[in-house]
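Pinned message: reference record for Succinate-semialdehyde dehydrogenase/glutarate-semialdehyde dehydrogenase
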Amino acid sequence: MTDMRVDALDVHSPVDGQLIGWLPTATDEDVAGSVLTAREAQPGWAATPAAERGTALKAAARAIREHAAELADVLHAETGRPATSALDGVLAGVSTLEQYAELGPVHRGRSLQGSPDAADFMVPGPRGVVVALTPWNDPVAVSCGLVGAALVTGNAVVHKPSERCPHTGVLLAQLMVDHFPPGVLQSLTGDASVGAALAASPHVDVVAHVGGTATGRSIAAACARTGAKALLENGGNDPLLVDADVDPVWAAEQAAIGAFTNAGQLCTSVERIFVHQAVAEEFLAALCEQARRWNADPQPLVDLRMREHVHAHVAEAVADGAHPLVGGEVPDREGAYYPATVLDRCTPDMRVMREETFGPVAPVRVVASFEDGLAEACVDEHGLAATVLTGSMANAQHAWRALPVGTVKVNAVFGGAPGGAAQPRRLSGTGFGYGPELLDELTTVKVVHLGQAQIHPSSQASRAAS
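Predicted structure (tokens):
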């Protein structure tokens, strides 16, 4: 018997294109009902002692840890992310929940210095109903961050995972939901129209979105109409600068890790490379060798639609004069595979240098000086992250101050201490999306002035008599 499905998400394997499964798409009634349910449940959850909210989050983290391998398998099947990396992403999500479970109960306001006969203080409280729209490239870790921080601060959450990994989102919700009161955490599946309906709801207080720039801009417009807070991390066009004094082979290894990890499908992937002409020849040769190594064990892109997007950027660049040193062609095989690609002779006007390609592509531009590369790297509509490879402390200092991005990494393409929280710029979004500061984003502060009342004489007399 054939399933009768009017509105459904079909999920296909990026490895061979086979149907993995399907899930129903939420209707307008589902969206409205979930938001109103969250609105009704939120005050009771906000009144729950902060320590109890933290305990509930710890219990949810334990449940995910116990089922981490199962969740990683689903993530691998839906997105093609290698099994080991998928498990790392799940465990990163567990750690994030555990951190917020500890940080939430100690999130505090402050007292103010007013007149001696009064008390003045600032008290943080939950914003209300939070919609969390999360991506497919690191779905568990990102979801645990946004959902965990929202829940531990007393908000109710309606979560919609990406339509590219809905089974991952559903399983994550199933592992978490029983540890919270009914209605406090809900999950809906659906395509972009479901996310748009959630963002447009007049009963939502925060829309937190990690994903594409175009979607982020539409969410910002919707929030401007409803008055909801928009918390956005919308990808970037991250540059990498290679100075004349660094080992070009080491620099090529760093560039390859930044451009090819997870098939280039990370928000902070290296998207454009500026290399000093003094080391350009050796750097390009070493980068090509790195690309060939990555191509020996390829990872698929998330789907064929993403591959078409990536190849369109590459094909346009080649047509405009870029030289493909490695890769650059759609492979003749099943699945959504695309080779690690190195493009030489790139120019700033090429789309592969102006926009987020989000694939395993390393576009290279040779520059006459570090200053020239830095100046070009600073010209961009995005503002997420950047990497600088240099042995000069002066150049490093100048670069991290000049680059108009939220995160600058010097001499390591990935890495950093835990707890860091950056604010993206321009098209890359707005607000702190990670770290302890995310608790500030998901709460609102109320100022209280507590003065002394003038007591009516009759009340004073009755008090004295009692």
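Pinned by admin. Summary line: Residues 1-5 have pLDDT under 50 and may be disordered.
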